[in-house]
Amino acid sequence: MKRKNLLQSFSQSRREFLHMSAAIAGSIAASSTMSRSAFAARENELNIYCWEGYNSDKVLDPFRKEFKTNVKAQGLISDPDAVNKLRAGETKVWDIINLNNAWGRRQLFPENLIVPLDQARFKPKWDMVLPEFKWPYYWAMSNDGKNLLGMVQRFGPSGVNVNTDKISRETVQNDGYEIFLADDFKGKYAVLMYDDWVIMHLCMACGFSPFDNLSDAQIATYETAMRKLINNAAFLSDDMNAIALGMVNGSIIGSFPGSTYTVSAARFDGNANLRCVIPKKGPNNKPGVCWMELTSTVNNPELSPRAADFLEYCYRPEVCKNVSFAEGTYNPVTQMGDKRVMALYSKEELDAIQFDTLDEDMALCSDFDIIPNYPKLHEIFATAVRERKA
Amino acid sequence: MAEAAQSLKPPEPAGQPILQLRNVDRIFDSFAAVDRITLDIYEREFFTIVGPSGSGKTTMVRMLVGMDKPTNGDILLRGERINDVPANRRPTCMVFQSLALFPHRTVGQNIEFPLKMRGVDAATRRKRALELLDQLRLPQSYYGKMVTQCSGGERQRVALARALAFDPEILFFDEPLSALDYRLRKLLEKELKDIHRETGKTFVYITHSLEEAMVMSDRIGVMNRGRFVQIGTPREIYGSPHSRFVSEFMGEVNVIEVRGEAGAVVDAAGTRFATPVVAADFDTGTLVVRPEDVRFVGAGESADNRLTGVIYNEYLLGSRVQYQVRVGEGQTFLVEKLRDQMPPGGPGSAVTIGWDARDSMVFPASRLQQ
Amino acid sequence: MSRASDFAAEAPAPLRAIRAPSRLASLGRWFAEPGVVAAAPLALLMLGGFLGPLLLVVVFAFMPGGTFSILQVPTLANFVEIVANSYYLSFLASLWLAALTVVICLVVCYPVAFAMVRVFGRHGSILALLITAPLFVADNLRLMGWVLFLVKGGVVSGSLQTWFGIEVDSMLYTSGATLFGLVYIYLPFMLFPIIMGISMVPEQMREAAFDLGATRFQVLREVDVPLAMPGILIGSLMTFILAAGSLTEARTLGGNAVTMIAMDIQKEFGFAQNWPKGSALAVLMILLAGALAVTALKRIDLDLIFGRK
């Protein structure tokens, strides 16, 4: 079982590499077509920039065939990096952008980096989604509520990951994040280095919401906790597979933070003892943070007409399932509100994405949003990492 | 040519062999680059090994300095076998064809190198280096100059000074002058001879130019295909070459295919040539005459050998003039004269050429096999 | 000194009396040279594609924090903040690890390169191929391979436990693991310049030293190393700069046990969304690396390396 895991994480990174090189080649090709685009409409090409999963051949190949379109896809590795690229002028390259919920409404649309969707065409699609995402869904709409900014598909709750053989789900739920900050937990956990998520969850751990304006006293509390969290960690890594591997081989017990999707692959692989747990105690009784991805059309001067087709395509039941179980990353999708979609899942697959407690977990989560004190909180985080006493 | 008179000195000054080769072979795969050579080199002598490229002379010197080992045979230094003594533990030293000066060091540091390796203190080293600069006719200001800033001739002197600083018992030279222009080469050849006399050391010099060898050497060994074809003083090599190879190696010569019949030498057309006494008959062989031994024969003058022909070309060689004379069908002769001995008429004029019997060098083919 | 006059004539006597042409005229002539004309398109491309972004980074470094525009009033605030904060830790960590990497790579590469040039000769190319082969795989992937090797329950600790019963914890996530990764990744950047440096040492130069009585060690010290120095310096410089600017090794193998300066820079551009501060850090790093490169290159004669002498 261990070996399977090793192999799996290896093949995942190999795939990442292949995708990355394909995407680089793709973007070169894409940029070289720029000069041509003045003369030829981009009917047969589509460039998508998205979180891992949408760039898998399982999702893209049928689309390529059906629409006779040359699709170039690049996987992104951080929301802010992707936003940087669009800001730096790559709106000319991409047609589709897929980011975590808050970015679209808060930044991309106000900065004119994405364009609204045709509501006549897309509103009916929202009939498929789970009740909590019903039209008009807050994160899919512009501030004035008039524009549809994108379509929501993958989502998930985030709290911490633990090996339930070592520490029970109930203990974590009841004792909360404090377990990780306790002295006797030193060296028993890893910090998953998705900076903004570490910051959000640590605020929750300190008893206040990261989405509120924080007082100096709160920030001081946060700083003390952050230093302890970073100093006491066994290691810091932005590789969820490395962390899952650590939990499997017993070198660590848990991961802070941790989401369903950071353990779903390991769970599907037979490690049912790894689990994402959302603590119960915390601000507004919602100490978890949930994310959902918004897939939008980029404000590309030569936007491919295939972009909207692709969004529509992603809402077909079999494609929903393929996105949900793309290579290496397994997530619930909002279209699980549709029976045709649900019928495509096996029991093992539902178990991998912790479907049994999904509603309960989501209910404990605040929505991922802009963090008002982010610059300060991030600086404290970065300093703690830099000054880490390992 | 005052220096040429120097070579009239007794060729073996001390009379004692310093370096001896006994049946030395060096075989690469199945090819013998050096083929069973036995040779004595004497104390204080200037011995030159001369031969065309590929004759084995470089292979030989590499064995003599210790960078290569003989496949068979022994090398003796003052009677002691040194086959297996590495180069850095032999009291010999070599000036390389490339000079192999250290480009990252100054002239002074280069010269001091062997002393430094031996642990000589800095002050003594410097004193010796400055002495050597004097001896090699380089200004003392060159001590701190980088060797990369020196001209070709200066580098040559630095390389020699460095070798002398080593104070070797035998100094080897592997064609060090071959990259220099003619004038500078001539100058340095003579200087090297002076230095040989001043230092009283044994010099073993390698070159492909017999002319260079003639100027400097006490004795010359001519090598071909891994063997010595003749060893002797410059005078012997020039005056009585043992073979066509040696005679041709000296420079341009006139060659006639001949056979020996009852003590007479006859070419294919039946012309008889006056030669020194020829002991045995032979079917094929060559008669060699040097251009400078051939002269124009005027009416009423006599010569042991006479041929008539037409002047075809005239080459000015500075103090001398060379004529190409066509004699009969396709046979041309080179005639070399001093400038003031101009012939009657220029190209196109009919002339009679001739030479003395003692200047005919006859090499039966059996001796060509060497 | 009787022949000194003959000797002096050997050097060509250039006519130095020619009047120096005006600077403008000589510049004009320079632009008209075929080499310059032929190189112009590429040079312009390099200038635009290479210096352009660099210039943008420099400009951004003087913009107020958090902005995405270069049309603000310039300020030194970013640099003040960097100095006031603990960024020196990352700079020191990067420079220290880079220096260690250089030392280790040197110690490992010199004998290997020496063997490849002097001992294996033509067969050395096979060894070179073996060493180059991993370069065809992306470095993050190769590091991932090492993770699987060194992680607890991975190839090394698993084998030790199975065969010898030795319990080994994870060998990852320490500064030692980071250093190992750096040495592993940047070894070829040291090796190949050193191979070049060593092949530049003429065999006759070594033989001459040996013939002049030097021991093997003296030949190494007096001839081999000094003459291979351009290669050694270039290799060290490349390795140092690449290692100092690296981040993957510290992240993948090191588990962020040490923070490299490149990680801080990336954080500022990425999660912190503070381009000006990231730019200011980058500028400082470029200055540091640039100063080092200039100092080192001053000591190398590039003409010598490319055989123009």
Structural class of chain A: alpha/beta
Number of separate helices of chain A: 17
* Domain module tally of chain A: 2
How does CATH name the architecture of the largest domain in chain A? 3-Layer(aba) Sandwich
Mean pLDDT of chain A: 88
Within the largest sheet of chain B, what's the order of strands?
6-7-8-3-9-10
CATH topology of the largest domain in chain B: Rossmann fold
Q: Outline of chain B, from the CA principal axes?
A: globular
Overview features:
heterotrimer, B: about 375 residues, alpha+beta, Rossmann fold, OB fold (Dihydrolipoamide Acetyltransferase, E2P), 2 domains, five-stranded antiparallel beta sheet, about 35% strand, disordered N terminus, C: about 300 residues, about 0% strand, flat
Describe the structure.
The complex is a heterotrimer of chains A (390), B (370) and C (309). Chain A is of the alpha/beta class and 390 residues long. Chain A contains 17 helices and 13 strands. With 370 residues, chain B is of the alpha+beta class. Chain B contains nine helices and 20 strands. In chain B, the strands form four sheets. A six-stranded mixed β-sheet of chain B has the order 6-7-8-3-9-10, with helices on both faces. Chain C has one domain (86-305): Orthogonal Bundle (MetI-like fold). Chain C has helices at 4-8, 23-32, 34-61, 77-84, 87-119, 124-132, 139-150, 155-164, 175-199, 203-211, 216-227, 229-244, 248-252, 261-269, 275-298, 302-305. The relative contact order of chain C is 0.12. Chains in contact: A-C, B-C. The A-C interface holds A 2, 6, 9-10, 13-14, 17, 20-21, 78, 80-81, 83-84, 87, 190, 193, 195-196, 234-239, 242, 245-246, 248-251, 374-375, 378-379, 382-383, 385-388, 390 and C 65-66, 68, 85-87, 89-90, 138, 140-141, 144-145, 147-148, 151-154, 169-170, 172-175, 251-252, 255-259, 264, 267-275.
